[in-house]
Amino acid sequence: MSGAPAPPLLLASRSPQRRAILEQLAIPFEVVVPEYEEEPSGADPAAEVERRAQGKARSVAADADGRPVLGVDTEVVVDGRVYGKPGDSAEAEAMLEALSGRTHEVVSGLCLLTPAWEEVRHAVTRVSLRALTPRELGLYVASEEWRERAGGYAIQGLGAALVERIEGDYLNVVGLPAAVLVDLLAERFPGTYGYG
Asked: How many angstroms separate the CA atoms of 60 and 144, rounded?
């Protein structure tokens, strides 16, 4: 599309982190809160996050007016156990204790759809946390940064101090598998969004 502005993606998400990542990548978007209940199905984590991302995207597709719709879902997984968003400070502390000194996976599903097609993919980033002292755990939990965060931490905030090593897409840990999205935009909309 020479000179024509790229149509904004319709982001089916409540997440301020996902909005910030799209702004960082200069991808135009509008937000619509998805009408989708995240019920666990017991599927493996990659299939689970793909299913939820697809559900979120499909829940707002009727409002898209032909624009591409983006749905994303993220989980933290260690030893096959899925850690979602902690419900309170005790649960946040227990999650962080379980992740302390260990490597976990941040698994995100992404669904990009238009009236003509639907693409569903996932990304995995491995994150190793330092061995955290009880004092460090207590101070981090007291910061309240764990709220609304899968795994109970925010790598882009104070949680950066908890991390020893990361393998993979950093922005996936923040909340959106950017490398997967950029690849899809380059493949499906060459040049339109500045990629491909």
From this structure: 31
**Which alpha helices (DSSP H) does the chain contain, by range?**
16-24, 45-60, 89-99, 134-142, 170-174, 178-188
Cβ-contact 11, 52 below 8 angstroms? no
The predicted model scores a pTM of: 0.91
The length of the chain is 196
pLDDT tens-digit map of 47-75: 999 999 999 999 999 989 999 999 999 99
Active site residue 88: no
Domains and CATH numbers, the chain: 9-188 (3.90.950.10)
Residue 171 corresponds to which amino acid? Answer: L
Please give the angle made by the CA atoms of 11, 35 and 59, to the nearest 5 degrees. Answer: 65
| Model confidence pLDDT, tens digit, residues 15-24 | 999 999 999 9
Catalytic residue among 44, 63, 65, 73: 73
